[in-house]
């Protein structure tokens, strides 16, 4: 987060949310854990990925991929 803010020319110490998060961590309200690159689930929303990687992350997130036909069927069932 620091490097991204620096890239945009913003001083991260001047951003209120940074101080809020830092305070929550220091007070033990929020715990931060290292997550290996292989399990960075947010990558599916932030990066261009190969099909294999997308399928892996979809599975880990518990997401499903629906065909247009399945979506229509689910919408019709919801309308009943």
How much of the sequence is in beta strands?
A: under 5%
Domain tally:
2
**Secondary-structure class:** mainly alpha
Helix content: 55-70%
- The termini sit apart by 46 Å
Helix-strand pattern: HHHHH
Return the average pLDDT rounded to an integer. 85
DSSP summary: helix tally: 5
Radius of gyration: 19 Å
Beta strand count: 0
Shape: elongated
Largest sheet: none
Low-pLDDT windows of residues: none
Could you characterize what this model shows?
The termini are far apart. 1% of the residues are buried. With 80 residues, this protein is mainly alpha-helical. It is built from 5 helices and no strands. It folds into 2 domains: 1-32, no CATH class; 36-80, no CATH class. The protein is 55% helix and 0% strand.
Record keyword descriptors for this entry.
55% helix, 80 residues, elongated, mainly alpha
Summary, kept brief:
The protein has helices at 2-7, 16-26, 43-46, 51-61, 68-79. It is mainly alpha-helical and 80 residues long.
């Amino acid at each position: 987060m620091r490097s991204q803010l620096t890239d945009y020319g913003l001083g991260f110490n001047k951003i209120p949310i940074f101080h809020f998060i830092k305070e929550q961590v220091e007070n033990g309200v929020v715990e931060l854990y290292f997550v290996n690159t292989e399990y960075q689930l947010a990558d599916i929303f932030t990066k261009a990925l190969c099909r294999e990687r997308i399928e892996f992350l979809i599975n880990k997130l518990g997401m499903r991929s629906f065909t247009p036909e399945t979506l229509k069927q689910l919408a019709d069932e919801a309308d009943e």
